[in-house]
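Why should sequence recovery work at all? Because a backbone constrains its sequence more than one might expect. Tight turns favour small or flexible residues, buried strands favour hydrophobic ones, and helices have their own preferences. The token representation captures these environments compactly. In the example below, the structure is given first.
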């Protein structure tokens, strides 16, 4: 099972944020505040979360010089793991907001139990005991509910970007948060559940290394047994991805995996009418490109025209080629050119509506 664990850890290794930029460089316009959580009253195990706090970081634009002095919010969703998001995500914001002419405030929320202190320690006990996909949904819903009632500078337009796990979360939140205008999903195919994507990705990896069909079939059986165990006992006390050679920041508990194992974002994506942008690499074994292609096919079959898809030949889950050369910056820049071009149209529409009112 150790070999399987090693491969699973590789399959969870995309964490949005490709630049090592220190927080001190991005500190000027960042507001840090905390918001009390609410817990799922149907799950007594999470009752202790009722008085815990969500760590929120909000970077305001430098020059909000446009319609009515209000701005939208760009919500950035990290992928798998317990690394702090503040530095990695806000570090990219300045470049992206320059492209968007400073029209959005950037919102980052840490996962439960993750501290933005610059350390890269193993996932905390609080994180392991409480982190689930649903908890992320609860937390973001709570943060946006708070801002909806307190952020007088917000124009009530929300733009969401997520990578990997965060891309699937972007789809779910877009279906739940009415202010959502557009979403960007990076390496988040949408059509495959995690229970489907994990063995499919390992199969591709094994085929690339010359494994026999018998070995591949045995691997699939191991996954099937593992998933049955996780579904029956989604405990926070068992970890997947605990290979000491690769570190512990991407360890996930059976509890978290049980919360996300069978979700299919495509089920909600096809109901969305807002613009959607997806980017995927052909060599992705974490979430195989076939998942993204199936999503595109579903949209085409339904006659829906609100999905823009970009496929990058030869790039993996982190947008690197086989030599390890990264195209992350290029891929994300293209995604934000699409998003911010849309923002300019939004401002134009707002101005036209304002003129009509007058």
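From this structural description, the recovered sequence reads:
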């Amino acid at each position: 099972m150790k070999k399987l664990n090693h491969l699973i850890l590789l399959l969870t290794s995309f964490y949005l944020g490709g630049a090592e930029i220190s927080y001190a460089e991005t500190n000027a316009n960042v507001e840090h505040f905390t918001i009390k959580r609410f817990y799922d009253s149907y799950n007594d195990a999470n009752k202790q979360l009722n008085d815990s706090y969500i760590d929120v970081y909000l970077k305001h634009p430098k020059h909000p010089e446009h319609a009515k002095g209000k701005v939208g919010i760009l919500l950035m969703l990290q992928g798998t793991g317990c690394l702090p998001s503040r530095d990695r995500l806000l570090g990219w914001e300045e470049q992206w907001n320059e492209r968007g002419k400073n029209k959005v405030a950037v919102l980052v929320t840490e996962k439960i139990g993750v501290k933005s202190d610059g350390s890269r320690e193993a996932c905390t006990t609080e994180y392991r005991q409480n982190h689930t996909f649903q908890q992320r949904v609860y937390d973001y819903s709570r943060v946006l509910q708070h801002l909806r009632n307190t952020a007088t500078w917000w124009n009530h337009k929300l733009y969401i970007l997520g990578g990997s796990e965060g891309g699937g979360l972007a789809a779910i939140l877009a279906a739940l948060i009415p202010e959502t205008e557009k979403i960007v999903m990076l390496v988040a195919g949408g059509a495959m559940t995690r229970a489907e994507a994990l063995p499919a990705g390992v199969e591709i990896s094994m085929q690339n290394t010359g494994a026999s069909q018998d070995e591949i079939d045995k691997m699939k059986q191991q996954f099937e047994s593992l998933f049955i165990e996780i579904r029956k006992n989604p405990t926070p006390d068992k970890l997947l991805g605990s290979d000491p050679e690769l570190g512990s920041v991407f360890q996930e508990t059976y509890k978290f995996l049980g919360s996300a194992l069978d979700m299919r974002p495509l089920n909600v994506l096809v109901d969305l009418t807002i613009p959607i942008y997806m980017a995927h690499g052909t060599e992705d074994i974490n979430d195989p490109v076939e998942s993204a292609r199936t999503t595109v096919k579903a949209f085409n079959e339904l006659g829906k025209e609100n999905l823009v898809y970009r496929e990058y030949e030869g790039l993996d889950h982190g947008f690197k080629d086989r030599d390890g050369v990264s195209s992350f910056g290029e891929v994300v820049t293209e995604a934000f050119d699409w998003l911010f071009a849309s923002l300019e149209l939004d401002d134009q529409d707002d101005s036209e509506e304002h003129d009509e009112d007058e």
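A few observations help interpret the result. The mean pLDDT is 81.
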